[in-house]
Amino acid sequence: MDAAGSPAKDASRALLAGFSLEMTGKDIPGLDDAAALLPPGTRVNVTFLGNEDLEMRLAAARAVQAHGLVPVPHISARRLASHDALEEFLARLQEAGLSEHVFVVGGDPATPEGPYASSLDVIRTGILGDYGVREVNIAGYPEGHPDIPEAELWAALEHKTAALAEQGLASVIITQFAFDLDAVLAWIAQVRQRGIRSLIRVGTPGPAGIKRLLAFASRFGIGANAMIVRKYGFSLTNLMGTAGPEKFVAELGRRLATDPAAGEVALHFYTFGGLPATAEWVRSHGGEGS
After folding, report:
1. What is the pLDDT of residues 37-86, one digit of tens each?
2. How confident is the model at residue 1 (pLDDT cuts 50, 70, 90)?
3. Residue 184 confidence (pLDDT)
4. pLDDT tens sequence across 192-210
5. Which terminus of the chain is more solvent-facing, meaning fewer CB atoms within 10 Å of its CB: N or C?
């Protein structure tokens, strides 16, 4: 085990500085339990799920703010039934002082429920800034997407960052969670080679049951073969326990520390095992929010 103050420990702490995490509209009790463990100003993404409504999303974002944290509400393009629905959500966020940071994502429905087929469609409305948005988080896919060809993913990332820059809005890329460290690093290198300088938040699961992690990996098309998950820190032959991102974070931090071309990189935690468990893990590993 690395001693305190060792280069490996220092690299992990540097990567954990400015971490973010996410919650659903139903996670307010978990947020209440976790808040004391989170540094003031930590960014907390609030998801936009089909089984939650506007009031639930707003209540969750308000709860984040009330704890001295920074809410990052999701806007799911394909779940918006109309342009009016988009404007209503943005207006309600602005009225509550919750609109500065948003995450615009395509969303799960295969068929759009309204006029927006992609996150780029929402960005190209040009109205985000009118409602007080200053920073837009967008998705990245280091291990690809099961339904979108790689060339389309790269084109979309380039178009989104360019459109946001034209509108004077900051962009942050939050990646889908991954187990394959080599794939993540190769993807970051390609992002930078394409001239995109946005902060990248690498998605990783907080501590959770191994079966639950694998179920989410399967749902999102994430590679979970035996070699990759062993490197991540658990075995496919023992599915009863829990796993945390210790090995992934330590190695990612170590390799980024020797790669100045990678630019600004932080972590984003998917809280499959609950907000308190993730907050406790980050605190115990020296994490500081942003």
Report:
1. 999 999 999 999 989 999 999 999 999 999 999 999 999 999 999 999 99
2. very low
3. 95
4. 999 999 999 999 988 776 6
5. N
The number of C-alpha atoms within 13 Å of 290 and in the hemisphere containing its C-beta is 14
Task: Give which of 84, 91, 79 is closest to 47, Cα–Cα.
Answer: 79
Tokens found for residue 132: 């007080």
116 CB-near residues (< 8 Å, 6+ apart): 77, 78, 80, 86, 122
Domain ranges of the chain: 7-283
Contact 128, 89 (CB under 8 A): no
Q: What is the CATH number of domain 7-283?
A: 3.20.20.220
Residue 285: per-residue pLDDT: 84
pLDDT value of position 141: 94
Is the pLDDT at 224 greater than 90? The verdict is no
